Every structure is written in C-alpha cells, then in structure tokens.
Amino acid sequence: MNGVLIIDKPSGLTSHDVVNRVRRALQQRAVGHLGTLDPLATGVLPLVIGNLTRLAQFYTASEKVYEGVIRFGFATDTYDADGAPTAPEQKPEVSLKELRAMSSRFRGFIEQVPPPFSAKKIRGVPAYKLARKHKEVLLKPIQTEIKELEIPEFDGIRASFRVRVASGTYMRSVAHDMGQQLGCGAHLESLRRTQLAEFELADAHMLEELDAAAHSAEIEDLFVHPRKLLPQFPSVSANEEMTSRIRSGRTVNLPELSRAKQVKVFSGQRELIAIATRVAGTLFRPKIVLSADTTAQLANSHGP
C-alpha cells in the first residue's frame, strides 16, 4: 500500500502516536510523518505510506500555516499550556493596537531560542530529556522566518493569531518571547496547523474515519491523489517502454520538459512511479523509484 494520507491530529497525541495508530490500522510498517506537531497542537499531519515514504526528503523545508491563541499574564516552563507557571500571574497592560505593533518585530527573519522542552539536541541528548530531569538547558538561537503574522482579536488576556512560517519555527518560543517583551509573561494556549506545503485541512481525515475505512476498498479514497503531490514538479505520463526504463533506473528522453530540473513520472492516472532528474540536455534519470513492483533502488549512484 502506497500513498499520502492527511490526518487531522487531535490534541493529546504525539505525532509518533498517530504514526503507530495508522500502522496498526493499515497493517503497514512503512509509515512516516512530515513535520512534527506537539502533543497540544492539532491539525494537518501528512503521513507518507509504503514506497512514498521516499518523498519525505522533498518536504523537509516546507512552509507551514498555523492558527492559535497566545495567553498573556504568565509564562510556563514548556512555553505552552501543558507546562507549569514560572511566575505569579500579572495582568497585561497592552491594547490590541500596541500588541499588533509589537508583533511586527517578529515578522521576517528572526532569531529565536527553541523551547527547553523540545527535540533540539545538546551534546547528542534531546533538550526535553534534560528539562524533565530539571537539568540546565542551554540552547543556541536559531534563525527562522515568519512570513506573515496577523493578530485579529485580543480580549486583554488572550490573542488569536494566524501565522505563515518557514520550517523550523517554534510558535511556543514566539509566544514566550512576546510575553517577555511585554513584561507580563505569555505562553501558547492552543495551536492548529491549517497547512503544510500543498496539504490543507480540507485534505485531512479524522483517525476514526481511517479506522472505519481501513479494511475496505474505500481506504484509497482517503489518500491524496498522487497528481496533487509536489505541484512544483511538472508531470509526465509514461508509455510502456518508458515505464520499463524508469523502473530499471535507466534514462529517458523528455524533450518537452527540457527546462525542468525534476519531473514526476506516472503510469496511468494514479501510479506515481518515479521522480526523475535531468542529467543532460533532455535526458532524465529516475532519482527515486516509487513503483511497487520495481527492483530498482534509489538511483543516486548512477552517473549521467
């Protein structure tokens, strides 16, 4: 079974919990996720299944969109609502207009320190393991990009937001840093991912839907249509001869795609058999072979 499945992750589960549940439901070992969500967070969690786990490399730097709520008045040790308060509560002395003006400092390329309860490693040890033992966690700032940040509402305590960010941005750190700048403390109260790369909430399914369809012919109806994957790459439909060459890792001539660096190769309408890379002129070689019945492996070792 090969496909891409978008789950609307519920709060309280880790991304790995969701992967394990899908593995059991589909009786498929090869399942991976694209872009971790914290247990508190909900929303778009794309899963790659079977041979399509090989597509994960194309999503490591994917842009993401979130909606959520920042709670002002006190910070927590985890920077979110699951943590313990680190100081007594204070009433924020800020208006919506002032909050919007302050939030402009967080747009563009910024440096932020990851939360102490994060998977960032310190001398090979995940920071959260040290934090749970109440050991000192000293993480270096990282650079990231916040492309859009809007604050539509603020009731004096809670601010709703919508944000579009580059990969690697910690919204928990954004909330924490805003609270520090205002001097009243803050933490991330809720977070919902509405988009990752080309995947949106409209594509997502509840885990209960998956469980109901797992052992029926309807299961593939839950998968993202392969033609929608990686829209930045042009597509080509392979004839029988081309399919045979692709599956054996050999080059094919695609004169109509001479300006493309990489292309998606399909057999029929739904079977994505390879991602091919231009190696010389109009010659393309399959970099990643995805077809279930091929004996070819990753073709990175082939020369042009």
Task: Please give a handful of descriptors for the protein shown.
disordered C terminus; elongated; 304 residues; alpha+beta
Could you tell me the strand content as a percent range?
25-35%
**Mean pLDDT across every amino acid position:** 90
Low-confidence blocks of residues:
292-304
In one word, what is the shape?
A: elongated
Number of strands: 16
Order of helices and strands: EHEEEHEEEHEEHEEHEHEEEE
The class by helix and strand makeup works out as: alpha+beta
> Which quaternary structure do these chains form?
single chain
Please bin the fraction of helical residues.
10-25%
If you compute it from the alpha carbons, what radius of gyration comes out, rounded to the nearest whole angstrom? 22 Å
* Biggest beta sheet summary: 9 strands, mixed
Number of helices: 6
How far apart are the termini?
31 Å
